[in-house]
Amino acid sequence: MTLKAENIKDDAVFQAAGGGGVVERLIARVPLFANAAPGFLEALYKNARSKNYGKSHVLLLHGDKAEKFFLIRKGWVKLFRETIDGSQAVVDILTAGHVFGEAGMFEHDGYPYSAEIVEAAEIIALPLDVLDKEVADNPKMAYDMLASMTRHRRLQDREIEHRAIQNAPQRIGCFLLRLVQPVASGPVSVNLPYDKMLVAARLGMQPETFSRALSRLRNDLDITIRGATIEIDDVSALSDYVCGACSAMFPCSDLKSCDK
Amino acid sequence: MTLKAENIKDDAVFQAAGGGGVVERLIARVPLFANAAPGFLEALYKNARSKNYGKSHVLLLHGDKAEKFFLIRKGWVKLFRETIDGSQAVVDILTAGHVFGEAGMFEHDGYPYSAEIVEAAEIIALPLDVLDKEVADNPKMAYDMLASMTRHRRLQDREIEHRAIQNAPQRIGCFLLRLVQPVASGPVSVNLPYDKMLVAARLGMQPETFSRALSRLRNDLDITIRGATIEIDDVSALSDYVCGACSAMFPCSDLKSCDK
DNA sequence: CGAGGGTTTGAAGTGCATCAAATAGTGTGG
DNA sequence: CCACACTATTTGATGCACTTCAAACCCTCG
Q1: Distance from first CA to last CA of chain B, Å, rounded?
Q2: Phi, psi of A171 (to 5 degrees)
Q3: Count H helices, E strands: chain B?
Q4: Prediction pTM value
Q5: Which residues 57-76 of chain A have a CB within 8 Å of chain B?
Q6: Could you give the C-alpha distances from A217 to A76, A86, A183, A206, B189, in angstroms and in order?
């Protein structure tokens, strides 16, 4: 067993939640819970468990019985699906404030994806049954969750469209544009939120393709690349290049608030 | 103007709903409305409008202000998104019993896709505000709609996965397998529900690619093709070929009930 | 400094798209 | 009922985008 593997298993440090009130405040700030009944949040707190995980830790597996959902306190989490052949499709990559695993609530097929830590993270596990009860009882809560789910559905529609229509440089450009918002013009500088390998996976392409496509953007448009920092001299030139191959108009909102 | 074009415009025959009770019965049978309050269905009936449309009629455009949602009584409808460049991504293809356009309810960006009749259809238009009110007031209704939305979200996850991982023959095979269910073994015969061109679009490939990929399936597996009828001698051979490139196990339920 | 992963670059292969044209099918008017 | 027109489908030839395999480079962290 390698040293790496040991790390993965061992640095999942348990820590009880509910002590300092930090977890409470974080939970209360989740937009999805804005209209929850007071008792709901308390029930969540009582059963909240915050843990630290190291990179590569697998938090849950596609098909696992869904009893908890998760709120990310810090770090990055990759949601993905894996085939028997070993191929893997990245569903999404999430960070602080995002919620995941709540989709396991309705079906009995377990979670619809697997989740792996891709950057050391602190994750709060929350009981699904408490959420389920609240949604069933509180119309406003259900309504909010429905709205959030609808937003998410649109993002997925867009995702399917992009993967069908945009080529590799355009998908990267689109990703960058969504990072620089709401700045809509002039030279800007953005940092890739995570590994280029991960960005590539997130965009459904190979790392090599990502690298080549990015340098094609560099050659064709006014873009400078310094490691993970990318400077875009002319945002509108980039949006011209990208958004012709998209059904949305340019300042396309990235509606993913914290209600994944 | 061609003769065809006249047809498209003119055969949208208006007919008031609520007379024969047929529309009522159809609406009442939508699973999504199973738990609706009695007053809700009546409010829907009152404002229901059933119309006939010819092939190629565009029912709604991406971005249109969303005031209605739709229930298909018969025929086929294509949901799609179109870019400035003219490329088009098919979101889904629906038929009798399916509901669409309800996603326009929450956002103010209008409908998230365009809808076009691809086979002469009869469509019932229903007021979105009535649905919205019911969802806001009736916890059970909101809960059901949430469950339905979650199911849909899973189908989209699967869609993204398939387009990322499966090649053309596998995507076709997967499509066929979902048609033959719940028959899980032995020789079966299926009819493509619509044009091969449309199936190709639905699967995100060109008609030429579809044709070639299908004949590759014919050569490699025990499959016979007679026009739109496809005979599969060995379903398990097909599922072996297809499902290795999918995260789901074979008899993979096509959860799209009538609540699109 | 050295090991290991991330990133880039090169070379070759593959799958799908595109363009083009032939063939089959379908509905129409005569 | 046939001939025509139009569309759907198939087949062929070619090109391009992305993948795959391989190797070099670079960066970071112990």
Answers
A1: 36
A2: -65, -40
A3: 9, 10
A4: 0.87
A5: 62
A6: 27, 31, 19, 16, 49
Q: Which bases in strand D are touched by protein, i.e. have an atom under 7 Å from a CB?
A: 6-13, 17-22, 27-28
Are B113 and A161 a contacting pair, CB within 8 Å?
A: no
Residues B211 and B231: their CA atoms lie apart, in Å, by: 16
The pLDDT score that the predictor gives to residue B183 is: 64
For residue A245 the two structure tokens come to 């191959």
pLDDT confidence tier of residue B117, bands split at 50, 70 and 90: very high
Question: Tell me, what's the pLDDT at B241?
Answer: 94
Name the CA dihedral angle for B193, B196, B199, B204, rounded to a multiple of 10 degrees: 180
**3-state class (DSSP) for residue B140:** helix
Convert the pLDDT of each residue in B27-51 to its tens digit: 888 888 888 888 899 999 888 989 9
Protein residues contacting strand C, judged by Cβ under 7 Å? A 4, 195-197, 207-208, 210-212, 214-215, 225, 228; B 3, 167-169, 204-206, 208-209, 213, 227
Nearest residue, CB atoms, A153 vs list B84, B145, B153:
B153
- Label residue A13 by pLDDT band (50, 70, 90): very low
Any chain B CB within 8 A of the CB of A87? yes
Average pLDDT, chain A: 86
Reported as a single tens digit per residue, the pLDDT across A52-65 is 999 999 999 999 99
Q: Strand pairing of A68-82 and A58-60?
A: unpaired
